[in-house]
User: Fold these one by one.
Assistant:
Number 1:
Amino acid sequence: MSFVDIILKKKEGLPLTDEEIRMFAMGAATGSVPDYQLSALLMAICFQGMDARETTTLTMEMMKSGDQMDLSGIDGVCVDKHSTGGVGDTTTLVLVPLVAACGGHVAKLSGRGLGHTGGTLDKLESVPGCRVDLSEEQFIEQVRKIGCAVSGQTQNLCPADKALYAIRDVTGTVGCSPLIASSIISKKLASGAGAIVLDVKTGNGALMPTVEESVQLAKAMVDIGRKAGKPVYALVTGMDQPLGTHVGNALEVKEAIEILSGRATGDLLEISLDLGSFMLVACGQVSTVEEGKKRMREAIESGAGLRKLEEMLKAQGATADVCRDVTLLPQAPVLVPVPATRDGYIVSMDTKAIGYCTQHMGAGRAKSTDRIDPAVGLVMQVRLGDHVRTGDTLCMLHLRDASQAEPAIRAMQEAVCIGDEAPEKRPLVSAFVSAEETVYTKGYGPK
Ligand code: URA
Ligand code: CA
């Protein structure tokens, strides 16, 4: 069968055979199928979809397209967590040390910022000296020794996903549930995790804007996990505003340290406790999520979580003790407030626009070759539902250069919408999805 026949078949809405899907994944990994044919098939999949069998086969073939990590040298179940990507979403830096401080083993491969979303590797690199290019041996040794490591994926992990992701990014084919599910789960399976906890974001700053679509994506991933024999749990969580108050690389590290020190609370802490407690259940350290949350809160109070972060950063080469003194993190020279232009309630935020605003300031990349400025970003001073008066500060911009202030102020005043009526309050978690069940938070189930 020629590749054009596979494209035509999917264009007609017919399911592809396992062998055809294997040709697709291998063709992407080896470069034997040209990008224009891969693009055409990706677009056909966006329109026609893939059933559960096709999605699972694609995941397995992508996983097998490169190296697979062997974590069997680490005692107990290694648990991993993955977020579909958000703004001000620093849960990794909060929950990895907390879960490790509570006895869990976390071997986490993270990514760079993508589009409007931030990436954990870029955040870690804002810590002077911290490395995110650990070899497989160093990575495994560090998890054995201190219980956690966060590093970038090795060159040859899921090459099929690398090729397909680069094409999807520039052909409008990112937002497609079977493609997202196979992309994420193939990497998690190849990295050797024994159990996986997923944070599927929903809302205007997420890949999937509605709760229904996000639950569908979560189910697709949980089902692949079941077929692969790995427990996968997913929480569908809100991304209608930045999760934490800080957006930007060093700023997000600072917020994680403030939370682990017990000096800051809020939605970022709550979601980190939710996800982390499922990780502790998944690796058998606790039997209920309530117990997991209690143990994690104790690790904040005792300082064990902060000490674990310090230990991890040091193991990865950090030269400055930022956990004891956050002023050792890179700091932007220019601070400018963004004032509210009218009285009223914060009724909505264009979360994607807030992410792009920080990207334009230098916190993210527009092209993969762009250099990141670790110090820049913003700190939100309002949340949805807050009441403000004209002139009140909506957020503080942290800039490299005062000439960046004007466009950023305008972008933020447009992104934060002020109205007359207080908006309806939305829960942080709208659904929990496991292989056995989907539990919606009250009021969020299918009508
Ligand atoms: N993150 C991934 O790794 N892959 C996707 O397709 C989307 C988000
Ligand atoms: Ca991420």
Number 2:
Amino acid sequence: MHFFNYRKGVLYAEDVPVKAIAEACGTPLYIYSYGTLLRHFKAYDDAYDGIPRIICFALKANSNVSVLRVFAKNGGGADVVSGGEIFRALKAGIPPYKIVYAGVGKTEREIRYALRSKILMFNVESENELVEIDRIAGLMKVKAPVSLRVNPDIDPGTHPYISTGLKKHKFGIPIEKAFAYYRLAERLEHTKVVGIHKHIGSQITKVSPFVEALKKTLLLVDELGRHGVQIRYLDIGGGLGITYRDEEPPVPRDLAMGLVPMLKDRQLTLIMEPGRSLVGNAGILVTKVLYLKRGEEKEFVIVDAGMNDLIRPSFYGAYHRIQPVEKKKRKSILADIVGPICESGDFLAKEREMSGVKQGEYLAVMSAGAYGFTMSSNYNSRPRAAEVMVKGKRFALVNTRETYRDLIRGEVVPRFV
Ligand code: LLP
């Protein structure tokens, strides 16, 4: 469910015509719907009513400070994977005691920053990292709160690039080894075991992999309990899919119905790390048609957004719906919708049947709120897009379009050149 709908053939973001925003702010342009963000957040929160919980939004999906602020104001926390994300989360007003920190390659600087900030816990991904965090905590004369990210070896049935919970992946600690690592963590002087973490992949469209992974994780929690290792926070990761095309993923309540029965009567605080399912359908990318080009074999619609703005189609072969901002009665065409970048892989859609478009018109790339702007780059020296948030009849820039000056900010030419 989202609030990008047509009224008499005109696409609206909540109560504002998308075209009006595009004309005011230029393109390419990301537009986020406040109402959709809030609705998605509440859907998660309500689904787990009665269970102590923290919804730690995965910043990697969308780290715009205003987006984070919406969640922060409603009690949300953050799942971060870098010092930069800790910085953003804190800037947005997310309290440090609601921040969990994952990632296989945390640096000393990042670990120090996290300890100084007093985050809730480190989701530790290897034995060496555990020892390193303990060492740094010792130097800082603090205790590091840790949870171990266990790898439950469950196939989430998703794109290989975004599946993470199998043995062959770099993530987490094999679940069979986790017990021994917990015993080690208990012995470390500057470490305090507080939780357990798992995350098996992304864009998962079934409940069963979540259930299987939780079952395995809880077996370990029980075994730890029998040996006196108390787990307070159970972090089940993120990964719930969304509808890009015709997928029918479970909604948060469906997922909760699968998981909650296993969590009843346990002294645990549940942590969730949804990313895509909170923001994916709450954002669109608006782009302008620059040229139409009839190739030898097919038509090309050349637009002003490229793979640097939205890399998902090029990188994962991901499907995003592309809709006209104003519907016209025209003959449909079969076209590749491509960007201006000098790569054949620069496309937003391939062989897409769509209603005919004209130069100068706008298109909306749907479901672009997750892993859209955050994965964008300056490739081909293209300034990154602007971002706007809409709430009802109001809209505001929440990130200014980059300028050419921004492109060379920080670059220096040494004397010897
Ligand atoms: N927690 C951890 C530890 C993660 O690694 C991720 C995503 C999440 C939570 C959030 O997962 P979500 O709820 O968004 O599925 N760039 C790819 C997706 C990469 C996901 C990486 N990890 C894409 O555009 O599809």
Number 3:
Amino acid sequence: MQISISAELRQRFADAQRVLVLTGAGVSAESGVPTFRGGGGTAVWKGMPFEVISSGQMLERNLPAVWEWFDYRRGVLEALHPNPAHYEIARWQECFPEFTLVTQNVDGLHQKAGSQNVVELHGNVWRARCTVCRLGHDMSQSARPESCPGCGNALRPDVVLFGEMLPPGAYEFAASRAAQCDLCFVIGTSALVYPAAALPGVARSAGAYVCEVNPERTPLSDLCDEVITGKAGEVVPQIGL
Ligand code: OAD
């Protein structure tokens, strides 16, 4: 597929000092991770829209059902691998004096591709945390424990559910980096979930050049300086060429 990247973007990429990348589910689509929205549809699991099963209310009402959904998602993710977009974004961390990767994804594929210091706005499905003492527990190498290894209370996925707050400080840190960046990429997000979707606007208001990569238009498209219509795995590796 012919992808058109402007000479201006190439120049800005070559000159950039501070780069911020915001990613969403679309960056993992070519790895086989289903997106939540897009293509005219939304995800449903056992007849429940994902906003219902992935909600703070459901966690309070039926924690086992929430675990069933996240256990299922980890099962799907286990066999999947990063795609060329994840690897290229990981390479970018070496290319600029300051680089910040902010993701809404909970799949851990950026880290698997080598990205470091990823700002995870919505948590990570490979971690559990205690509902009482908040102790975190890594599940990437081992099975999910029945209860908190520290205090014995119930564990929950370390993921932000609908109706819940973001991890303390995560958005504030991302917004401070957005306010200082000179180049911002928005890759594979429907830009419907706030506050993540506000970050490109913060960057734009501070004078950054903002570029969106998505096969579909989003509510942010009009705000962007450049919109590259295409799949992340095909477009992203071509940006820095
Ligand atoms: P969505 O599923 O809402 O949007 C996915 C976006 O990716 C859509 O705009 C698609 O057009 C685009 N897309 C699809 N395939 C693509 C590809 N190959 N390359 C690039 N883009 C592609 O996902 P998010 O915007 O990430 O929260 O959703 C935001 C949040 O809503 C998620 O983090 C999740 C959900 O509730 C939590 O799980 C806490």
Number 4:
Amino acid sequence: MNVCEPHLHSSDSFLCQYSSSSVDDLLRDETVIAVISSGDRTSADTDPRHLHCVLPVLGQTSVHEVWYAPERVTAGRDGDLQWSSGEELLFAAIEVDERDYPSLKTAIHHAYVQLFDLSERRGYPSIVRVWNYMPRINQGSGDTERYRQFCLGRQQAFNERRYQASAYPSACAVGHDGHTTIIYLLAARAPIKHIENPRQESAYHYPRQYGPASPSFARATQVDWRRGRQIFISGTASIVGHESRSPHDLAGQLQVTLENLEVLLGESARVCQSGNAPAMDLLKVYIRHPLHFAPVQRAICDRFPGVPALYLQGDICRRELLVEIDGVATLGHCATCSLPY
Ligand code: 3EB
């Protein structure tokens, strides 16, 4: 009898881990493709694999998000870009100071075009996941709101580089109090599959009331690495259909958000023809008000016991939203017979 054992468990994500080791120690490992630091800046970022993010860490002092390739990586800088790559995977990042551009929209457009062109040039055309951290995301009213201007610049870049909506990557877009926008991404050599959430309107189909350009992202993305199949989950918040639920109400939003994640994990299993729901490996939680940290942490630990979670203070792109959760999950499948468990 041929018995398939799961090759991966939720507790041993092979791709990403949180660590509080020193940046220097982490970078000494040549299979580390990226170290994203949050919290206090503890070292000069000279290595192109290291990126410092301005979002304050809640509940800890400083934590690093560490991404691994199974093999030694190559790294470099290219104009404003920093990147590193392994055989299957590219990490790329850009920090843009919008004061160097006519507008936020043009700065974002420029950043995205550069990231897309680098991914193409280096041979990783499948953009899996993008993290967007921008200053004062909720400032401005109506269509001048900065998040909406950001969406315009981003959409223009996707259009120009001929990405169809079905190729939009998973993403998150979170605000902070700093001055520069930080965008980083992971891209793959191999084809990938994007997944939508049946409980939510696709963001790229949000109606006009949310801005002149719909947000360009997928709800989740499936990637088959040699090491196994992973699901990247976009920032997920208290939105059903296209409407915010439980505005300004933390308990209500946590419930809706966790339900949205549940539905998305179920949909990922369905799309990937897996009998099992993906196992959550890691969570990244954005919280608007630092005082909400304890109740958010409690809800997350109840629902995802034992799953490492990083809590950051960040502004969610709709003012009435208080919390957003993203993460990485593993979908087990048998590497030898390709059958789902
Ligand atoms: C939402 O579902 C909440 O603009 O890249 C989540 C994930 C959100 C990504 C983005 C925005 C983005 O619309 C906000």
